[in-house]
Amino acid sequence: MAASNETPEDLKYTKEHEWIRSLGDSVEIGITAFAADQLGDVVFVELPEVGAKITAGQPFGVVESVKSVSDLYAPINGTISEINEGLLDAPELVNESSYKEGWIIRVSPDNAQDLESLLSAAGYKETLG
C-alpha cells in the first residue's frame, strides 16, 4: 500500500494535512503521509518552544523539504507540552513514520471539544479528491 493511501481511522485531520491523536489529557499532532509524500524528503523541522500557546489555524512551525518549505498549522487552541526532539537529528522520520515516530508536537488543548470539529479519516480522504 502506498503511503499516500494510509489514513488511520482513529485519528482526526485538518484540510491543511495535519493529523491529531488523542492521548487522554493531551493530543499529538503531525502531518499526514499524503502531505509528507507531497513535500518529498524532509530535511528540517522547525519546532516551537514547550510552553508556547498555539492558536487554531495559525502556524506553529515549519517543515522544510528538498522541494519546498511549508508552514505547520495548529488544528486547535492549546499549550505545547512536548516537542519531538528526535526530529532535530532525524527530520526524515516525518517521511518514514508520519503517524508514529514522525509526530511533531504534543499539546494540552484549551478545550477538548475542539477535536469534535476536526475531520474524520473519511472526511479527510474526501478533501484529497
What does this structure look like?
It is a single chain. The protein has 129 residues and is an alpha+beta fold. 17% of the residues lie in helices and 33% in strands. The chain contains 4 helices and 9 strands. It has helices spanning 33-39, 86-89, 93-96, 121-127, and strands at residues 12-13, 18-22, 27-31, 42-46, 53-54, 59-65, 69-73, 78-83, 105-109. The model has no long low-confidence stretch (mean pLDDT 94).
Nutshell version of this structure?
With 129 residues, the chain is of the alpha+beta class.
What's the structural blueprint in terms of helices and strands?
Layout: E1 12-13, E2 18-22, E3 27-31, H1 33-39, E4 42-46, E5 53-54, E6 59-65, E7 69-73, E8 78-83, H2 86-89, H3 93-96, E9 105-109, H4 121-127
Antiparallel strand pairs: 1-2, 2-3, 3-9, 4-6, 5-8, 6-7, 8-9
Helix vs. strand class: alpha+beta
Main beta-sheet strand count, sense and barrel state? 6 strands, antiparallel
Number of domains: 1
From the alpha carbons, calculate the radius of gyration and give it in angstroms: 13 Å
Overall mean pLDDT score? 94
Shape: globular
Per CATH, the superfamily is RNA polymerase II/Efflux pump adaptor protein, barrel-sandwich hybrid domain
What order do the helices and strands follow? EEEHEEEEEHHEH
Assembly category: single chain
- Fraction of residues in β-strands: 25-35%
CATH fold name, please?
A: OB fold (Dihydrolipoamide Acetyltransferase, E2P)
Could you name the ranges where pLDDT drops below 50 across 5 or more consecutive residues?
A: none
CATH architecture: Beta Barrel
Distance between the termini: 18 Å
- Care to count the β-strands? 9
